């Protein structure tokens, strides 16, 4: 059980870019989760079905915290904001509707979940809005840490905020930042139905 947020590395993965099995591509519609992210933790998440990981041979992906880039389909909500952060790249140079992301895959032992879930935190200020039903594409690029239990919700929040800082620093490196512009992530004119199964999680 995690008692202290000990000194953790603030960068994940090598400087020259992701290593196998990354990148991992997952896609799906944002679904309603447990509702704890906003209410209890102050860190709202976008949830997508765990079944996305079973396509392409990733059903055995270890539980834990990961980082990467996420794209929301602007056609599903024309008022989606562009990235307002400046920590990973300038907003003017960034593809619209793509965001740095940190995600948890697993059972969240602090809450003793019985079902595995994928909870994605998009590092951006959405003004409290949710995106239920919106299409999300997730490019998972690296592993941050294993799934942990905690002695208090405060310790959980502390570690999540550290995860966010790790994701920002890690994705800010040139070899990681360039993945934000990958065609699969930003080209919403490309039909998910024709993407090869090994390249994508689910289609909706």
TrEMBL record:
<dbReference type="GO" id="GO:0009398">
    <property type="term" value="P:FMN biosynthetic process"/>
</dbReference>
<dbReference type="Pfam" id="PF01687">
    <property type="entry name" value="Flavokinase"/>
</dbReference>
<protein>
    <recommendedName>
        <fullName>Riboflavin kinase</fullName>
        <ecNumber>2.7.1.26</ecNumber>
    </recommendedName>
</protein>
<dbReference type="InterPro" id="IPR023465">
    <property type="entry name" value="Riboflavin_kinase_dom_sf"/>
</dbReference>
<keyword id="KW-0067">ATP-binding</keyword>
<comment type="pathway">
    <text>Cofactor biosynthesis; FMN biosynthesis; FMN from riboflavin (ATP route): step 1/1.</text>
</comment>
<keyword id="KW-0808">Transferase</keyword>
<comment type="function">
    <text>Catalyzes the phosphorylation of riboflavin (vitamin B2) to form flavin mononucleotide (FMN) coenzyme.</text>
</comment>
<keyword id="KW-0288">FMN</keyword>
<dbReference type="GO" id="GO:0009231">
    <property type="term" value="P:riboflavin biosynthetic process"/>
</dbReference>
<keyword id="KW-0547">Nucleotide-binding</keyword>
<keyword id="KW-0285">Flavoprotein</keyword>
<feature type="domain" description="Riboflavin kinase">
    <location>
        <begin position="19"/>
        <end position="172"/>
    </location>
</feature>
<dbReference type="GO" id="GO:0008531">
    <property type="term" value="F:riboflavin kinase activity"/>
</dbReference>
<keyword id="KW-0418">Kinase</keyword>
<dbReference type="GO" id="GO:0005524">
    <property type="term" value="F:ATP binding"/>
</dbReference>
<comment type="similarity">
    <text>Belongs to the flavokinase family.</text>
</comment>
<feature type="region of interest" description="Disordered">
    <location>
        <begin position="1"/>
        <end position="24"/>
    </location>
</feature>
<dbReference type="GO" id="GO:0005739">
    <property type="term" value="C:mitochondrion"/>
</dbReference>
<dbReference type="InterPro" id="IPR023468">
    <property type="entry name" value="Riboflavin_kinase"/>
</dbReference>
<dbReference type="InterPro" id="IPR015865">
    <property type="entry name" value="Riboflavin_kinase_bac/euk"/>
</dbReference>
């Amino acid at each position: 059980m995690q008692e202290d947020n000990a000194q953790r590395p603030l960068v994940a993965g090598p400087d020259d870019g992701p290593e196998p099995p990354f990148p991992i591509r997952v896609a799906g519609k944002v679904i309603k989760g447990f509702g704890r992210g906003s209410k209890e933790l102050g860190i709202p998440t976008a949830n997508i079905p765990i079944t996305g990981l079973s396509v392409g041979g990733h059903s055995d992906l270890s539980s834990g915290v990961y980082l990467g880039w996420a794209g929301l389909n602007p056609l599903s909500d024309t008022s989606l904001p562009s990235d307002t952060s400046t920590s990973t790249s300038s907003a003017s140079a960034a593809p619209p509707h793509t965001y740095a992301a940190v995600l948890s895959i697993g059972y969240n032992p602090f809450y003793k979940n019985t079902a595995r879930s994928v909870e994605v935190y998009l590092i951006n200020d959405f003004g409290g809005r949710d995106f239920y039903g919106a299409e999300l594409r997730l490019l998972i690029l690296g592993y941050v840490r294993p799934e942990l239990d905690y002695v208090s919700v405060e310790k959980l929040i502390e570690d999540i905020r550290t995860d966010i800082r790790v994701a920002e620093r890690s994705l800010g490196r040139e070899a990681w930042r360039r993945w934000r512009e990958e065609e699969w992530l930003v080209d919403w004119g490309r039909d998910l139905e024709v993407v090869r199964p090994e390249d994508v999680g689910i289609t909706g």
